[in-house]
Design a protein that fits this description.
Largest sheet: 8 strands, mixed
Number of helices: 13
Strand order of the largest sheet: 3-2-1-4-5-6-14-15
Order of helices and strands: EHEHEHEEHEHEHEHEHEHEEEHHHEEH
CATH superfamily of the largest domain: NAD(P)-binding Rossmann-like Domain
Helix content: 25-40%
CATH topology of the largest domain: Rossmann fold
Number of domains: 2
Number of strands: 15
Shape: globular
CATH class of the largest domain: Alpha Beta
Distance between the termini: 27 Å
Strand content: 15-25%
Mean pLDDT: 96
């Protein structure tokens, strides 16, 4: 199969969809890989490294898209890329379609076979292609929050770990999944006072087991969240409903009652955000203020550490990309139900319930479109 890896064009996005090691695996399996020139430079990977791994270097994006049956990316297509896609082409990337009606409708209208990393789900409920970026975003969130808490960046002027005789920052983390648990670990390492909120008591038990009370855990409820948020210096939103929009756990009214200079970091922003006052920002302009509360809502947080992120992502995506290339998308879905759950748009139809619900679009079960696919 012809596989194309274009250069990412989203603001400050320096990751690339495959490392030379990943390319070598695809080429060794008999596939042809075309990489756009300079696609890897942001991750400190040179064109010559891809050539040595067996890839062809294309000198513009058009050459990548025109030849490829399978496009492998990191982030969702930007409007300037839309017209490069053709009907029947397979797109494999992070999509987060529940938060992007324009892209959803384009992919359906153009009949692009769209597989989202974030909804590939194994039988035990794991999200293997989302996990590494959730891990990195979680680890970054306290760092970014700590910086924004500094007075020159608009924050309350609170040091995460406090000082002798001075209380540390109060950090509240909404969600105890991969991102939330990693955020809690880093915030605790910075010696902040950390509370994690989740509605899954088993996840809270695991945090208690590991941290022996160093990190506080609270069962999620509207009242508990309100009480914790109003006293917090930093709130990190790490809520995930696979494929669907994130729920607004922090309302406008809560934000208006928070301490001036408090900081909100919304890891959930790719799925619409879990703070009602959230909207997507970029690395070049990462924050804004609502009611004296600073919001950090960058939609591609791991893009700030592209070397780490690219290698972590390729470790998990390349086997799935190879399965698609080896067998074709339809047969690959039949062989692996986890991959089938990643298909959000197929043959012009929205095939993910959460995405369809988010935009009021008709939902068409994938098994009605693909013979031999179990529901």
């Amino acid at each position: 199969m012809d596989i194309g890896i274009p250069k990412e064009v989203k603001d400050s996005e320096s990751r690339v969809a495959a490392t030379p090691e990943g390319v070598r695996e695809l080429v060794a399996a008999g596939h042809r890989v075309t990489v756009e020139t300079a696609a890897g430079l942001g991750s400190a990977i040179a064109d010559r490294d891809y050539e040595a791994a067996g890839a062809t270097i294309a000198h513009d994006a058009a050459a990548v898209f025109d030849s490829a049956e399978l496009i492998v990316k990191v982030k969702e297509p930007q409007p300037g890329e839309f017209e490069r896609f053709r009907a029947g082409q397979v797109l494999f990337t992070y999509l987060h379609l529940a938060a992007d009606e324009q892209l959803t409708r384009f992919l359906a209208d153009r009949a692009v076979q769209s597989v989202a990393y974030e909804t590939v789900q194994t039988p035990d409920g794991r999200l293997p292609l989302l996990a590494p970026m959730s891990e990195i975003a979680g680890r970054m969130a306290p760092q970014e929050g700590a910086a924004v808490l500094e007075r020159p960046h608009g924050g309350r002027g609170v040091l995460m770990g406090g000082a002798s005789g001075v209380a540390p920052a109060r950090v509240v983390i909404l969600g105890a999944g991969m991102a939330g648990a990693n955020a809690a670990q880093i915030a605790a390492g910075m010696e902040a006072e950390v509370t994690v909120v989740d509605r899954n008591v088993d996840r809270l038990r695991e945090i208690d087991r590991v941290w022996h009370g160093r990190i506080q855990t609270v069962m999620s409820s509207a009242l508990a969240i309100e009480r914790l948020v109003l006293d917090a210096d930093l709130v990190i939103g790490a809520v995930l409903v696979p494929g669907a929009r994130a729920p607004h756990l922090v309302t406008k009214e809560m934000v208006g009652s928070m301490q001036p200079g408090a900081v909100l970091v919304d890891i959930s922003i790719d799925q619409g955000g879990c703070f009602e006052t959230s909207h997507v920002t970029t690395h070049s302009d990462p924050t804004y203020v609502v009611d004296d509360v600073v919001h950090y809502c960058v939609g591609n947080m791991p893009g700030a550490v592209p070397r780490t992120s690219t290698y972590a992502l390729t470790n998990v995506t390349v086997p799935y990309a190879q399965a698609i290339a080896d067998h074709g998308l339809e047969d690959a879905m039949r062989r692996d139900h986890a991959l089938a759950l990643g298909v959000n748009v197929y043959a012009g139809h929205v095939t993910n319930q959460g995405v369809a619900d988010a935009h009021g679009s008709p939902f068409v079960p994938l098994e009605t479109l693909v013979d031999g696919l179990d529901g």
